[in-house]
Each structure stands twice: as structure tokens, then as C-alpha cells.
């Protein structure tokens, strides 16, 4: 008996939408078993994970706050993933973006710098872009795998962050904590609603989504990138320039992550601190794939993952779930999604006997 | 009472998903007969052979051996009864020598095997050195190894799947002599082919397949090629009117001392290739695949950059270092031999596949895709080139090879190229479509285009080309004017007998 995967003629639209839903259901069922095996109140844990985020305006606003960076980073990454350029170092680009943006309030703590916020966001975006471009240069010049380079650059970014926070940028009145001064008022992003934390970075993220949609679905650039991802030989046959695509996708991915990083320090943190590196860059990879790498799907998946973040926080408190269990839940979601997605594109064929 | 036939198939059917590959096939093969199974691409020949050789099992019907029903679960069951098969694509290890390859299937000490290989070789005209490494052997020699390997099992029935498609004309004659000797020794032979003249020359019985069903059982010697073709394709053999061309015009494509080292161990190094292609000319490149055809096509198209600018010249400009898109902008277009994944993106719709190379046909506005224009172009291509498909939204990957080829060829022709390279234009394409494709190429020549055709099908090249070259082990022959050369002369170049 042999198993073979045979490509389906066409994937139905229903199945495209069904895959993430089915993945979510399977993840819930598996975690019910898993939580129960851990001796935890499984029903309560799931209630906290999936429902609590919707039960109060405050929790829901926190979901929106989480969603902004995840959405923006994931849109940037997905553009590259569809062209088979695997930038998995958005975390590093995010940190560098946060660093570059922080330079302005750190050196002008009184806020007397014209267009402070604009400068910060620009610097953050360009910083992230430049940092990601290192990987593009190494890939196009020396053929170094961007997967490894971006990942390792993230470790470097963390060390740069540590150096600045423990050295030159440390707040002199901060009781020796590794953090910068608190940013002045004009270095903080305007809030969207009163009394809760979501800020206009959510608008950046939605704007980025619109940009990604137009580029990937309506523009020839996106078409070239999709071709390179689906059929690299066809891209070569048509003469689409591979180096250009590598530069472009890494630059866009870095730009998005950099802006997200800038928005984080200019948003909920209000200063640069070590906790700026909280894993958004890695979580965004899951967001991108669960969203099917499609701009519209990513809006939905970033929302879903944010719900899980906030729900996970409350589950650790109310149901005593270990932090690792929340991560396991997210990991399972990706694994199940990849499984269901494969079954959409392919059907399993059982073969009797063996060929010669 | 007459003796039952060696192999009898009664009402055998096989279905793959939606495709009925074989419909109620009856077939009888007698000992000492060379029986042809004739049919065009996709007629169900290969499926039928897989059923007989035990690779697949029939959904319905009975297979009988000497009158007794048998059921094969695997090829070794068929081998045990005395059925041997030589596949179109050889299954030999290139890094082993002949005896080692044979001993993987046949028990015995190497010295004994080597002696047997020599004996069989002498008896049936299959000379091959038992100690030679397989990668040093020519295609004809490899085929002999495959045949010997089957003969060592002392088969009563030998199946050969398109055995001549890989051989130069001279080797075909040698193969036929071997097969006649086997026939005289009492072996039955099932000879699968779509080449009518070969079947008429060799076989004493023929079963014709069309669309998975038997459409005729005849003595091929008593029918002319036209009658056989009619049974095979269901209508008269379409003719290409090869009105010889106008005076050749300006130089459109020139290869000048083009050399390129091979990329991998299994690639071919190209050496000092020279070629001129002028407006209003079709020039062919003959030769057996694997002699550098792929490498040469990629160097002309720009998928591989040449080592110097002037090694490849299009419209008088050195383009050796330009990419494929830049060469297209000079009026070049290209139909590659690989359709899915290179000439077309399987996951995308036909409309989006038009965009791949036709995007300069006013399909973009500020870089945004004009869907209307894209679809109109695609619809025109579907109509004009008789592409059988539900419409521009159909995924390319779901189309048959022949239909997709018509689409890709149509797309490239609609770019109105000054120079076009077409690689293996009719591989896996049915006869009707192949004729339509050849006609199109001739029409383009009449309109002044310059066309380079790389093909394994010698008949095709003779039909449409003004002159042709032969590619052998990375060397290109001098141009041979088609009206002044013969298949034998071309064949001599194909096996490297002429320098």
C-alpha cells in the first residue's frame, strides 16, 4: 500500500475559506484533550481563550492593539513568502525599526523636534528596510540563504538593543533599568478611542493591507512575485528579474516590520525597553500563513491570532494555563492549517501494489 | 480446434478518475507474430501495456495466457509467465556497467552473465560490451541492454513501448533485424508505435486504438499508411502544404562560436555553435534529446546568459548577456518544450498566463493589470488556435498537454515576433493539432518571420524546414538544405558518424 498526493484540478472557494475554520476546530479539539490531560479545566481554558476577548470593551480593545503590529508585519512578510523569499527575521527588523524611531525622542527628550512623529515613523520604516536589505544583498551577491541570514540578523538586533539600553541610551533617572527616557507627548501616536490603548497604527496596518491587496492582486509587480513563487522556471522564462524581486520583497517586509516597531515604542510602550522584542515578528509568520498569504485573509488571521493572545493571557490567569500551553495552541493552529490546506490542493490516493 | 492465442484480452477496461483510458479492449497475440498496437498520443496504448505487464489491474475484462485466465498483481507475476517489457524511458543505472545492471534483475555470477550477454548479442545482433559503463553507451546501445535484460528471462512475449522514438534512422534498421530474428525464434512481440511506415515495414498484425477503444484490426502490410492513419485519427491524415518559402531576408538570429560549459554532470557542454536564421526562413535543429537541445534553447531565450555578448545576436544586436525579457523586447518569442511550470503557470488561469509574456500588448496601465484586455487577448487566442477549454478562467494545470501547447504557441505567435524559437512543438500533441501547429509556423514564415524549430521528429523537420542542422553531443552540424538531403544523411550526423 502506497500513499500518494494528487493535485486537484481546482481548489474550491468554499474549501479555501473552510481550511482555516477546520484548522481552528481541530486545534480546539486537540487542546481540549491536551488541557484535560494536564489536569486543567479544559472548558474554562477554551472559554477564556476564545470568548473572553469579546466579553468586555477593554479586552476587545486590547485585541485591536495587538492586531496592528501583527497585521502590518504579516502583510509585509506574505508578499515575500508568495515569491518564495522567506524572510523569517521580521523580529529583528521590528527591533531596528523601534530603535531608529527611538533615536529622536532619546536625543530630543523635550520634544522640540519638528514633525517628531513623522520623523520617527519614517526612520523606523527605513531602518527596518535597510536591515532587511542586508539579507537581500547577501542573497543576490553571494547566494546566502535569506532564511538563515534574516534569522541570525534578529539575534544581532537584540544585542544592539541590549547595548543601547544598557549603555548610551539608558535613562539617567531610570534607577538603572535598561530602558530609555519616557517619550514626550508629541512622540506618541494619537489614540483611536478614549481610555483604551489602540492607536492609529491600526490605520497604518489597514492601509498596508490595502496596499498589499492592490499590489499583489491588481498590479503587475504582484503578478511577477506570484509567478516566481508558483513557477520559478516560468518567471525565468518570462525574464522577470530574480534579484529585483529579492530586493523588493525584503525591503517591503523590512519596511512594514520597521513601521510596526516604531509604532510600538511610540504607542503602548512610550519608551524603548527590552520587552519591545516580544515575538511579534515570529507570530506574524503564523498570521501570514493562516491567512493563506492573501491580503484579505491576513486581516482575518491577524484578528484571530490577536484574540488568542489576549485570550491566552486571561487563560493563564483564570484557568491556570501555563504560558507554554498558549504557544502550543498557536503552533497547533499553524500545523493544522498546513494540513487542511494541503488537503485542499491535493487528494490522497491509495495505491495497491508497486510499480516496476 | 485451433490452438488458443498466446495472449488474449477480452473486454478489458481501465478508468482513471474521469478518464476512461481503455474501453472493452479485445486483443489477441499469437506466438511468432509481431503485433503492432497503433494509436496517437493519449489513445490508451501505454495503459494497455501496463495492464498486460501487471503494473496496473483492469477494472473489467479478462487477460488470458495460452487460453487460461490470469491476474497479475505486479510485474514480476507477468515476468514469471514469460512477459518482458522494454520501456520508452530506460531504467538503467548510469554509474554501473552493463553486467552490473543486468545482475540487478537476473541472478547469476558476473562471468556467466557476461558470457550470456555476449551469446545473446551474437545470436540476435545485439552487440554490446558487457563491461562498458552505461553512461558511456549511446541510446541505441542502452536499448540493446534493456532488450538483452528481458531476453535473459527467456520471454514468450516481448513488449516494446515506442522503441524507435529515441533512435536515429540507422539504429532503427538494426533494431528491426533483431526483432525479426526473435520472431523467427518463436517469440511474440507487441510493438507499440504511432509511426505508420515502421509498422508497415515490420509488423504482421495491427490493432488500432482511438480514444481508448479498438477501431481496427488489420494486416498492416495490406493497408497503406493513409488507411492506417484514418483508423488511428478517425479522418484523413491532414496535410501540411509546405509551399517553399520566399527569398530569405535579413539576418534575424545568429549564433557565433557559441560555447557553454555544462552546468551539471548530466548536462551537455555546447561547443562552437554557429547558426544563421533569416527572415522568411524556418531552420530546424534535429537530434536526439539530451544532446544539448535544452541548453541551447535556454541560451537563445536568455534563461541562461551566454559567456559573451556577441555569441547570441538577435536583429543584429549582441544579446548574449541580456535576460529573457530584454530579448523579447527586441522581437523574440519562445515556445519551450516544458509547458507546465515554464511556458505556463499551472495554478493560474489562462488569462493570467497570457500576461506572462504578452503584458506588453497594452495589458498594463501604470503597472496595473487591465483585466479586460487580458481576457480579450486570451479569448482571441483560444478561438484562433482552437484551444479546447471552458474559457479564460480555466486553470492551465487542468488542461491537456496538447491544448496547453496550442495556447502557449498561440500566445507567442500573437506577439507577432520577428524571431521565434519553438522547442519540440508537437511533443504529446495529437495529429490534428500537430498539423495545425505546423501550418501556423509555415504561415508565419510566409509573413516574413524567422523561425527556429528544435525537434526530435525528423519527419516534422523535413516537412516544414528550409534547412536543418543536427545537434550531437553539443556540436551543431553545418546547415543541410532540406530539399537536397536525406534522412540517412541526417541520421549519420545524429550518431556522430560525420564530422
Please explain how this structure is put together.
The complex is a heterodimer of chains A (356) and B (499). With 356 residues, chain A is mainly alpha-helical. Chain A has one domain: ABC transporter involved in vitamin B12 uptake, BtuC, CATH 1.10.3470. Helices cover 70% and strands 3% of the residues of chain A. Chain A is built from 13 helices and 2 strands. In chain A, helix 4 (90-107) runs parallel beside helix 6. Chain A starts with a strand and ends in a 5-residue tail after the last strand. Chain B is of the alpha/beta class. Chain B has 3 domains: 7-233, 3-Layer(aba) Sandwich (Rossmann fold); 239-331 and 417-499, Rossmann fold (3-Layer(aba) Sandwich); 340-415, no CATH class. Chain B has helices spanning 45-52, 75-81, 98-103, 110-124, 139-151, 169-184, 196-202, 225-233, 293-301, 324-329, 350-358, 371-384, 401-414, 431-446, 458-464, 487-494; strands at 7-16, 19-29, 34-38, 60-65, 68-70, 83-86, 157-161, 188-193, 205-210, 213-218, 251-260, 270-278, 282-286, 312-314, 317-318, 332-335, 364-365, 368-369, 419-423, 450-454, 467-472, 475-476, 480-481. In chain B, the strands form 5 sheets. In chain B, strands 13, 16, 19, 20, 21, 22 and 23 form a 7-stranded mixed β-sheet that branches. In chain B, strand 21 (467-472) and strand 22 (475-476) form a beta hairpin. In chain B, helix 11 packs parallel to helix 13 (401-414), helix 12 (371-384) crosses helix 13 and helix 13 (401-414) packs parallel to helix 14 (431-446). The longest helix of chain B has 16 residues, at 169-184. The chains are: A mainly alpha (356), B alpha/beta (499). At the A-B interface, helix 8 and helix 9 of A face helix 10, helix 11 and strand 18 of B.
Amino acid at each position: 500500500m502506497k500513499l500518494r498526493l494528487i493535485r486537484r484540478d481546482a481548489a474550491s472557494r468554499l474549501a479555501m475559506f473552510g481550511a482555516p475554520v477546520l484548522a481552528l476546530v481541530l486545534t480546539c479539539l486537540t487542546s481540549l484533550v491536551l488541557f484535560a490531560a494536564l489536569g486543567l479545566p479544559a472548558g474554562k481554558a477554551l472559554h477564556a481563550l476564545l470568548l473572553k476577548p469579546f466579553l468586555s470593551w477593554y479586552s476587545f480593545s486590547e485585541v485591536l492593539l495587538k492586531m496592528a503590529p501583527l497585521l502590518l508585519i504579516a502583510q509585509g512578510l506574505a508578499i515575500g513568502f508568495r515569491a518564495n523569499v522567506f524572510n523569517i527575521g521580521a523580529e529583528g527588523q521590528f527591533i531596528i525599526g523601534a530603535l531608529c524611531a527611538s533615536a529622536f525622542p532619546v536625543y530630543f527628550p523635550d520634544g522640540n523636534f519638528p514633525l517628531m512623529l513623522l520623523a520617527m515613523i519614517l526612520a523606523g520604516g527605513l531602518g527596518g528596510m535597510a536591515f532587511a536589505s542586508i539579507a537581500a544583498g547577501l542573497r543576490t551577491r553571494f547566494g546566502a540563504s535569506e532564511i538563515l541570514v534574516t534569522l541570525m540578523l534578529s539575534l544581532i538586533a537584540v544585542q544592539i538593543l541590549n547595548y543601547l539600553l544598557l549603555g548610551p541610551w539608558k535613562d539617567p533617572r531610570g534607577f538603572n533599568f535598561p530602558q530609555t527616557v519616557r517619550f514626550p507627548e508629541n512622540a506618541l501616536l494619537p489614540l483611536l478611542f478614549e481610555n483604551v490603548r489602540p492607536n492609529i497604527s491600526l490605520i497604518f496596518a489597514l492601509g498596508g493591507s490595502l496596499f498589499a491587496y492592490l499590489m499583489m492582486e491588481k498590479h503587475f509587480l504582484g503578478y511577477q512575485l506570484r509567478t516566481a513563487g508558483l513557477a520559478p522556471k516560468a518567471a525565468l522564462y518570462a525574464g522577470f528579474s530574480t534579484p529585483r524581486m529579492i530586493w523588493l520583497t525584503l525591503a517591503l517586509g523590512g519596511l512594514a516590520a520597521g513601521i510596526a516597531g516604531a509604532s510600538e515604542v511610540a504607542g503602548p510602550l512610550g519608551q524603548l525597553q527590552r520587552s519591545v522584542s516580544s515575538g511579534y515578528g515570529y507570530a506574524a509568520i503564523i498570521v501570514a500563513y493562516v491567512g493563506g498569504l492573501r491580503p484579505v485573509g491576513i486581516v482575518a488571521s491577524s484578528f484571530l491570532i490577536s484574540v488568542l493572545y489576549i485570550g491566552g493571557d486571561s487563560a493563564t490567569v483564570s484557568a491556570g494555563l501555563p504560558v507554554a500551553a498558549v504557544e502550543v495552541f498557536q503552533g497547533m493552529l499553524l500545523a493544522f492549517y498546513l494540513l487542511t490546506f494541503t488537503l485542499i490542493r491535493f487528494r490522497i490516493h491509495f495505491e495497491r501494489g508497486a510499480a516496476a | 480446434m485451433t490452438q488458443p492465442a498466446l495472449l488474449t484480452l477480452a473486454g478489458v477496461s481501465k478508468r482513471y478518475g474521469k478518464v476512461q483510458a481503455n474501453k472493452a479492449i479485445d486483443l489477441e497475440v499469437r506466438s511468432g507474430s509481431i503485433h503492432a498496437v497503433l494509436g496517437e498520443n493519449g489513445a490508451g496504448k501505454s495503459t494497455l501495456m501496463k495492464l498486460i505487464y501487471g503494473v496496473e489491474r483492469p477494472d473489467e475484462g479478462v487477460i488470458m495466457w495460452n487460453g487460461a485466465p490470469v491476474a497479475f498483481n505486479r510485474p514480476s507475476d507477468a515476468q514469471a509467465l514469460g512477459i518482458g517489457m522494454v520501456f520508452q524511458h530506460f531504467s538503467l543505472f548510469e554509474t554501473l556497467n552493463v553486467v552490473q545492471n543486468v545482475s540487478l534483475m537476473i541472478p547469476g555470477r558476473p562471468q556467466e552473465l557476461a558470457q550470456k550477454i555476449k551469446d545473446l548479442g551474437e545470436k540476435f545482433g545485439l552487440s554490446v560490451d558487457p563491461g562498458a559503463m552505461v553512461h558511456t553507451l549511446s541510446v541505441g546501445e542502452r536499448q540493446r541492454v534493456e532488450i538483452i535484460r528481458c531476453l535473459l528471462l527467456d520471454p514468450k512475449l516481448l513488449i516494446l513501448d515506442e522503441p524507435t522514438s529515441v533512435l536515429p534512422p540507422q539504429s532503427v534498421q538494426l533494431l528491426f533485424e533483431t526483432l525479426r530474428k526473435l520472431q523467427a525464434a518463436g517469440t511474440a512481440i507487441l510493438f507499440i508505435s504511432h509511426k505508420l511506415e515502421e509498422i508497415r515495414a515490420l509488423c504482421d498484425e495491427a490493432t488500432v486504438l482511438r480514444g481508448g477503444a479498438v477501431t481496427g484490426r488489420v494486416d498492416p502490410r495490406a493497408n497503406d499508411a493513409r488507411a492506417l492513419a484514418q483508423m488511428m485519427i478517425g479522418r484523413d491524415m491532414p496535410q501540411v502544404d509546405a509551399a517553399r518559402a520566399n527569398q530569405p531576408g535579413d539576418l534575424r538570429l545568429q549564433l557565433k562560436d557559441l560555447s557553454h560549459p555544462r552546468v551539471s554532470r548530466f548536462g551537455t557542454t555546447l561547443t562552437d555553435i554557429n547558426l544563421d536564421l533569416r527572415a522568411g526562413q524556418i531552420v530546424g535543429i534535429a537530434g536526439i534529446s539530451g544532446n544539448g537541445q535544452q541548453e541551447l534553447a535556454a541560451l537563445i531565450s536568455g534563461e541562461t546568459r551566454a559567456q559573451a555578448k556577441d555569441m547570441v545576436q538577435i536583429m543584429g544586436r549582441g544579446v548574449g548577456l541580456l535576460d529573457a525579457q530584454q530579448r523579447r523586447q527586441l522581437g523574440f518569442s519562445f515556445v519551450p518544450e516544458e509547458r507546465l511550470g515554464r511556458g505556463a503557470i499551472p495554478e493560474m488561469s489562462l488569462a493570467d498566463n497570457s500576461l506572462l509574456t504578452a503584458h506588453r500588448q497594452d495589458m498594463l496601465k501604470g503597472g496595473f493589470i487591465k483585466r479586460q484586455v487580458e481576457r480579450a487577448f486570451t479569448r482571441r487566442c483560444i478561438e484562433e488556435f482552437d484551444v479546447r477549454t471552458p474559457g479564460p478562467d480555466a486553470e492551465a494545470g487542468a488542461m491537456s498537454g496538447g491544448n496547453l501547447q496550442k495556447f502557449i504557441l498561440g500566445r507567442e505567435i500573437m506577439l507577432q515576433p520577428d524571431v521565434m524559437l519553438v522547442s519540440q512543438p508537437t511533443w504529446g500533441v495529437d495529429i490534428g493539432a500537430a498539423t495545425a501547429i505546423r501550418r501556423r509556423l509555415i504561415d508565419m514564415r510566409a509573413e516574413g518571420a524567422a523561425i527556429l524549430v528544435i525537434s526530435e521528429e525528423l519527419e516534422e523537420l523535413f516537412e516544414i524546414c528550409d534547412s536543418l542542422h543536427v545537434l550531437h553531443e553539443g556540436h551543431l552540424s553545418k546547415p543541410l538544405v532540406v530539399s537536397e538531403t536525406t534522412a540517412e544523411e541526417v541520421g549519420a550526423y545524429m550518431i556522430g558518424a560525420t564530422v
